Predict the structure.
Amino acid sequence: MSEVKPYNQTQPKKEQVAEMFNNIAFRYDFLNSLLSLGIHKGWRKKAVTILKAKQPKIILDIATGTGDFAIEALKTNAKKVIGVDISEGMLNVGKEKIKKLNLTDKIELLVADAEHLPFSDNYVDAITVGFGVRNFENLEAGLKDMLRVLKPGGDLVIIEFSKPKGFFSYVYKFYFKHITPAIGKLFSKDHRAYSYLPESVEAFPYGEDLCKIISACGYSNASFQILTFGVASIYVASKK
């Protein structure tokens, strides 16, 4: 797995990712909806539906950003959702959103690194990650620390970009490599962020390859399902 960094190869990836998301935080929600045509909302709903049957009481949302996945996760009837991210700028936007929705008693947002989570072992009932594992400095270290804080029998649910096959792959590649960076440059003060997106997706494992990595990190029953012609996938695994 080759590593792609947003800006340069000498600065640690997590520092660059935090800087990148701090720079685009003020436009992130708008651009996310614009670039995905709103489809990402349906992907989150599907992921939350998977968790709902388990009735988790405490959910940890990794790479929570502005909190959309954390907010959606409340539909599992969880008592508490904790969202963590390395970008303080994104979390500040999320905190304002949660405050306006009167959800501050149910959702807590914290600055934290997925590789060094500030929680005790076996602390949460479920973990969600929406488009975040691709940005980890060390994928295996992040997966293992998430496993540590997950309770036995708890589930990990990841949504991540993948690569479509067949004719649609040509449409996807053109949109991702040309339209996405152009729109990002137009509306964001950090145009590199939207060039990094297709580059990081191209370099990141998906499908069976990502399931193998998840399993090697100690999870059981790792599986995936394709979303929207293979643009993204949902990965599900559990802790024994």
